[in-house]
Amino acid sequence: MYYILDSVLDMTGSVLAAGDTVDTPRAGPVIEVRDLRMRYGDKEVLVGVDFTAAAGEVVVLLGPNGAGKTTTIEILEGFRVRSGGHVLVLGTDPADGDEHWRSRLGVVLQSWRDHGKWRVRELLAHLGAYYKDYSTPGRARPWPVDELLEVVGLTAAADTRIARLSGGQRRRLDVAIGIVGRPELLFLDEPTVGFDPEARREFHDLVHRLTDVDSTTILLTTHDLDEAEKLADRILILTRGQIVASGSADELSRQVAGESEIRWTCDGQRFVHSADDATGFVRELFRQHGDAIGDLEVRRSSLEETYMKLVRAAEGSA
Ligand SMILES: Nc1ncnc2c1ncn2[C@@H]1O[C@H](COP(=O)(O)OP(=O)(O)OP(=O)(O)O)[C@@H](O)[C@H]1O
User: Matching PANTHER family, A to Z (predicted)?
Assistant: First the structure.
């Protein structure tokens, strides 16, 4: 997902120019989507998407290229007008979202290329100032710059010009810009593309901190299944314009009629077997061989195997 950065600045400026300052505590879901439909010309991209996200939940949207993940996120952000269906984000229809509503959302864009001559601290302080009017007793806005720099791991780069940041630092800056207003709901569209493993791990820690410290609700898309498994409270699989599965990685693997792989040794020999009922199989194994069993391992389908099965089944090619 790419945005023209001028429009981001416009959005930031216009969004935060004025407004009332009371955040409504949320009793219901933070995101509520029912029968969401989207058509580009005569091409139907979303044909009835349904899901909700609760406060503080990390929901990961998975799906093949072109499944409609970015389209869904852009509709929820209020950047795209849907063709049909019911959508509420923080209790408001994004099509009617005002500046105060926008001030409660965070969007991480790909990627902040403007303002190359500005220094990191300077840009964050500048953008953060727009959120001041939206501070509430429960949520002081913006995030104090030094704390924010610390949270995203950019303290050492605080006085570096943006044009001189490495790819990983730039992405952290993107995240910092997305959360400077301490959003209640954060949208992350493929946030770790181009990250090295260390930057990716740091980013995952950051996501956990945001949910722990700030109870931020997060909707994230990724093609990285390890990332989905590490971060998600709930995974949604979108394919052919519909959510075809929803649950934790474990719950999804249970939904797929899959076999577990059991490995063991017995009297110095190695064995491997696949079974639907791993527990029953292992019970029987011990009943027959008792103490002679060693090095027992039971492996459930990986998220990748589960994902592939669910997508293929939905696409009718399983
Ligand atoms: N502005 C547009 N006009 C016409 N078609 C579009 C437009 N934006 C997206 N599409 C089409 O809608 C479908 C869904 O695109 P979208 O970007 O939402 O998918 P995605 O799941 O985010 O894909 P990816 O994983 O590749 O980022 C694709 O077939 C895409 O070509």
Answer: ABC TRANSPORTER ATP-BINDING PROTEIN, ABC TRANSPORTER ATP-BINDING PROTEIN NATA
